[in-house]
Amino acid sequence: MKHIAVIGVGYVGLTTAACLAELGHHVVGVDMDEGKISMLRQGRIPFSEPELPELVERNHQAGRLDFTTAYPEAMQQADMVFICVGTPPTPSGHADMSQVEEAARQVALSARHPLIVILKSTTPPGGNAERVAAILASHLPLGINAPLVVNPEFLREGSAVYDTFHPDRAVIGAWDASAAEEVAALYAPLRCPVLLTDPVSAQFTKYASNAFLATKISFINEISRIAERVGANIHAVAQGMGFDDRIGAEFLEAGLGYGGSCFPKDVLALSAIAEQHGYYSQFLHAVMDINAGQRSLTVAKLDEALGGLHGKRVCVLGLAFKSHTDDVRESPALSVISMLCQQGAYVQAHDPVAMPTAQKVQPSHDTLKYCPDAYTAALGCHAVLIATNWPEFRSLDWSRIHTSMPGKVVLDGRGLLSPDEIRAMGFEYLAFAN
Ligand code: UDX
């Protein structure tokens, strides 16, 4: 059993803290945000994530998981400290390292005995790990050692707890071999492959993995544009491709494209890293362009099907960037809604959990209305757009929706519905190459 401090209790930090506590460690989560910490102390979590509320509550009650805004309190007993703060993009696309650097400074200033500092935040290779190590070294009390280990996080929102307990791998980058072994030992109960490498390669692996997955999505979206022109069904094509083990079945869903806090930020950051090193990556720019293009293509498809958008009423089902989360960061749904409103359409939107988060960030339009359920959202509309892959949209009473709509267009932006069933009800079913 270790004493562990986790700095930053966002998706990555809170999930890491709760899962480590569940494995039997004593964990204290630290965050500057007093509101967040007091919510957590009352057993409430600040975002929607399956399984996490129960896990936090159980471990908090068992005394293995606590929260504080004070570094010294969290650091008192810690043998290991995980840095899990954000690295949001700067206007140039580079990752903003200021929260990581401040966390390292605070950790070093509060340290009273040797410990291992584990960097989980996604940080660009090229001097950043070295800089964090230097910040630690220059602020630690004399005679106290705190080796840095880079250990990127690969969890997905919406399945964060499951992914943490069932990781595909752990990537551990360190200059200090015994610190690396100690971190590897934390993963032993999870029985996953562990890659021990240097810090730069560990950092780069995270960017390369996210860029590859984003590429897979942009690839299938590009193929769907061609498939549409030749009359091929993209779902059959993706299925046929996915049976090949070398390709793999996942991340071949054509549609509105990727959003969220990782892929858009990390692909942009990787292309910025490349440019900083004198290399313009046409490839990564193509991945981003294709992804942005899927959003305008969605609006163009609706425009064509409705004979113009001005004055038309469009129901948008789904606001989150994907199902099982209330996260709307870089959500394709929100950019499509903005484009629809700009082109004079009325939008009636619904999401099972993301309406409050969407309302906080989406510019309000007179022509945008949030509706309490999918049926109210579809009422009086000319078209329905499925923008998020919430499974419950599949089991809606689509014949009831059909009756309540003056127009009969369904644009399935996530390939969620059965085209034959929807067409049989009298809808004009549109998708990306169906
Ligand atoms: C991703 C990575 O999967 C994870 O390993 C990393 O640590 C963080 O970034 P996340 O952003 O939570 O996780 O979600 P993910 O399930 O990967 O989906 C990302 C986006 O891609 C979503 O907008 C999703 O709708 C979209 N997507 C996914 C597609 O458009 N098509 C697909 O086939 C798969």
Automatic annotation (TrEMBL):
Q: GO molecular function terms here? A: NAD binding; UDP-glucose 6-dehydrogenase activity
Q: Which InterPro entries match?
A: 6-PGluconate_DH-like_C_sf, NAD(P)-bd_dom_sf, UDP-Glc/GDP-Man, UDP-Glc/GDP-Man_DH_C, UDP-Glc/GDP-Man_DH_C_sf, UDP-Glc/GDP-Man_DH_dimer, UDP-Glc/GDP-Man_DH_N, UDPglc_DH_bac
Where do the UDP-glucose/GDP-mannose dehydrogenase C-terminal domain residues begin and end?
315-419
Q: Catalytic residues?
A: C262 (nucleophile)
Q: Where does substrate bind?
A: F154, L155, R156, E157, K206, F251, L252, E253, A254, G255, G259, K322
Query: Could you tell me the EC number(s) of this protein?
Result: 1.1.1.22
A GO BP annotation: UDP-glucuronate biosynthetic process
Kindly state which keywords UniProt assigns to this record, in alphabetical order: NAD, Oxidoreductase
Enumerate the SUPFAM superfamilies for this protein: 6-phosphogluconate dehydrogenase C-terminal domain-like, NAD(P)-binding Rossmann-fold domains, UDP-glucose/GDP-mannose dehydrogenase C-terminal domain
Q: Which reaction does it catalyse?
A: UDP-alpha-D-glucose + 2 NAD(+) + H2O = UDP-alpha-D-glucuronate + 2 NADH + 3 H(+)
Similarity-based family: Belongs to the UDP-glucose/GDP-mannose dehydrogenase family.
Specify the protein name.
Answer: UDP-glucose 6-dehydrogenase
